[in-house]
């Protein structure tokens, strides 16, 4: 078990491209950290830098207090689960799982014992003599995890391990990974682009955008107080409604021609990004803040998503209601946006307003 | 998916050119050779006599023939082993190069475009005992070299010439095989604590084994049957019998020695060897090398 500390860790490619400027991250012993962000944000690169598969061009990485920058992957005491699983196709499941121990000079009996122990935990015992080709996607995934577990590493690294599985299996494996990690208590760094996966797995989330850590915090912190419009839009599904607006003498002005005015108390004056989550809008017959014209309805049974727009405002809006609803297309729904659910960001600095 | 033609004749017309080539340049001469193998013909082709298996019996009692088999085995093994291993080393290195990979690869593929006879002559000149730069360098190093006299030297020379030409071919296949191995496998092995050498023998080499086996068969076939040009342009089978491989002996006995029956009998045996190698490749070993 180990703490992992990244201080100003960055990556600059020889062609001058600064993929990751500098990331600071303090991972506590046993913590489950998820790196999340859109594709190309540098999350996999960061993970591979921790693994030692990419060189760290600036900053310092330490695991358990020891500087790791120049150590070989094998000497960092980490284990990694790859997106493609990267199982050795010519070895059996047992061979795959035991390979790391074999290379470290562990004797045959101990390897067998350890492999059997882990196989039992992952329900792989009956598959030990098979080749990866003879396994289903979920089983391969499990073997990949088993291979990581047999060595009892200090840190687990997961690189989008569930993205090759079908939706149902993904949910199942998600739960399983979480349970295993809790049970083993191993510090874990997990990369995904799926925000649901990120929210459900993480102790703390790191939202990456173009190599910057936009915000680091617990899933609920990020949901309730996103630091930037990027985080606001990225966390939560469907995404938060974000509007360009202006704060001016106690009014929030939306749209052109001052078509929508919301009363508020705020010290800030100037252009802002105003956000409200689809689930926080309240339907009301009277005293509505604004009216939404319905464009499309998605009925999911347990909840209904209603897409529409405010007349005079050039952006679409999503409303999420629990239970089934059937509003007419083009009808108008009165909505209230409770002030305590607002998210306001300075449009220039992209930072959250207090 | 199958495509069906409404015509009966069109499919035949479409395959006709290929069939014609096979008939004229393969089946017909092969048939002739088989027939010839059972006859004895005088040197001028004026008369011939059916002798049944006499040509074969004579051949199998000829010590020179066994010598030729031995020479062929040594030659083909040497060509296959050195060709495969050098190509594998080159491919492994080319796979690691990031800048200028295209240049490196192109240069390595060039020798394949050189005609066998030219490849032979090229090395013949380089190793010429009187003026060849390599021979002179060997002499300077205190190694005596004369492939005109020394059968061993001659063998080394034809092996080098034949291998040099075949390396390009092997290199291409090995490189493609290496590039087909997912990077993540190598990375996983690195995290699993395997150093570069270990990774190569534990991961890369087993995954290359189907390619390696295919190339082994192709190289043996090449050494057996396609090195005539190399031999003819350099040692012409000499000195003595020391580089006279089976194919060269067929040519020499038939067209120089004018023993058409004996030469034909040798051809028939060669044909059987080819058939056997094909069967071995497809039926026997190919299945086992799969992972």
CATH class of chain B: Mainly Alpha
Helix content of chain B: over 70%
Oligomer: heterodimer
Count of DSSP H/I helices of chain A: 8
Order of strands across the main sheet of chain A: 6-7-8-3-9-10
| CATH level 1 class label of the largest domain in chain A | Alpha Beta
Order of strands, main sheet of chain B, comes to: 1-2
- In the CATH classification, which architecture of chain B applies? Orthogonal Bundle
Mean pLDDT of chain A: 89
- Radius of gyration of chain A, in Å, reads 24 Å
* CATH architecture grouping of the largest domain in chain A: 3-Layer(aba) Sandwich
The termini of chain A sit apart by 38 Å
Average predicted local confidence, pLDDT of chain B: 84
What is the H-and-E element order of chain B? Answer: HEEHHHHHHHHHHH
Q: Rough shape of chain A?
A: elongated
Number of structural domains of chain B: 1
Number of structural units classed as domains of chain A: 2
Record field, number of beta strands of chain A: 20
Describe what this molecule looks like in 3D.
The complex is a heterodimer of chains A (354) and B (291). Chain A has 354 residues and is of the alpha+beta class. Chain A has eight helices and 20 strands. In chain A, the strands form four sheets. In chain A, strands 6-7-8-3-9-10 form a six-stranded mixed β-sheet, with helices on both faces. In chain A, strands 13-12-11-14-20 form a five-stranded antiparallel β-sheet. A five-stranded antiparallel β-sheet of chain A has the order 15-19-16-17-18, with no helix packed on it. Chain A is elongated and about 75 Å long. Chain B has a single domain, classed as MetI-like fold (Orthogonal Bundle), CATH 1.10.3720.10. Helices cover 73% and strands 2% of the residues of chain B. Chain B has twelve helices and two strands, in the order H-E-E-H-H-H-H-H-H-H-H-H-H-H. In chain B, strands 1-2 form a two-stranded antiparallel sheet. Chains A and B meet through strand 6 and helix 2 of A and helix 8 and helix 9 of B.
